[in-house]
User: Which sequence fits this backbone?
């Protein structure tokens, strides 16, 4: 019964983490380019009371044995990089990636971060930057007085200047992708960092060699499905309740044993 108390407690702790992840998914349901997470669980070690295959006579042996599990633990919290819905904004600086790839963002400490959030703005120097002022890498600078900005599917950025007919190219948006995007490190601000698990970034041109294409005037929504998260939340709550019931039952059994009289 003592074992049951600790085993059920691991179940409650695991479901608490599950609910924490679900809550974060729901909190970011309207976050541009957000990718939902999922908790993967593992069973813990087993206490072997009777070994499988133990001889019971010269001609027979135990067919199954006795193994008692000691609970559960979270094995991983994995990011799910499925494509979110795409909606039109008509803002020329909003850019969406249709398919695989990440925008490259230069952070203040010189590190390259990666993002699916294409809601860009212009800073005082005319550079395309994130909402926090972090510039695209390689940098794209829009000249002052430009009448229009065009982002092609292959990432080519052109502007039309006053009095000119032909558009002027000002840069190319390059994308990065990873062998294992689930291995990226989330650092907030819709940014990720490469890790040993994600592998080195592969840099390429949108629309070529498996990279997604770009679309101007659109943004990608979160890939969180509210109904799915609500079902997961109900499941986590019921699992938490049944584990708490197991603790209560074990406590009641201990109380009965403790109150036995000669």
Assistant:
């Amino acid at each position: 019964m003592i074992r049951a108390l600790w085993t059920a407690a691991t179940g409650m702790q695991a479901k608490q983490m599950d609910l924490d992840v679900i809550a974060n998914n729901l909190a970011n349901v309207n976050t541009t380019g957000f990718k939902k997470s999922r908790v993967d669980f593992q069973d813990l070690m087993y206490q072997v009371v009777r070994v499988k295959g133990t001889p019971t006579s010269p001609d027979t042996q135990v067919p199954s044995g006795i193994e008692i599990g000691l609970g559960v633990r979270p094995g991983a919290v994995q990011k799910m990089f499925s494509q979110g819905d795409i909606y039109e904004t008509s803002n020329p600086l909003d850019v969406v990636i249709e398919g695989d790839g990440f925008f490259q963002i230069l952070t203040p400490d010189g590190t390259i971060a990666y993002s699916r959030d294409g809601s860009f703005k212009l800073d005082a120097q005319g550079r395309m930057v994130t909402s926090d002022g972090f510039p695209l890498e390689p940098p794209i600078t829009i000249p002052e007085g430009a009448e229009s900005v065009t982002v092609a599917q292959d990432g080519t950025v052109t502007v039309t200047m006053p009095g000119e007919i032909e558009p002027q190219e000002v840069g190319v948006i390059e994308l990065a992708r990873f062998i294992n995007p689930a291995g990226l490190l989330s650092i907030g601000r819709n940014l990720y960092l490469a890790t040993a698990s994600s592998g080195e970034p592969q840099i390429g041109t949108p629309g070529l060699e498996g990279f997604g294409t770009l679309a101007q005037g659109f943004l990608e929504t979160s890939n969180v499905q509210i109904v799915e998260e609500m079902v997961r939340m109900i499941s986590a709550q019921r699992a938490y309740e049944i584990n708490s019931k197991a603790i209560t039952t074990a406590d009641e059994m201990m109380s009965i044993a403790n109150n036995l009289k000669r």
About this structure: The chain has two domains: 2-80+224-258, 86-220. The mean pLDDT is 94. Residues 178 and 201 are 5 Å apart (CA to CA).
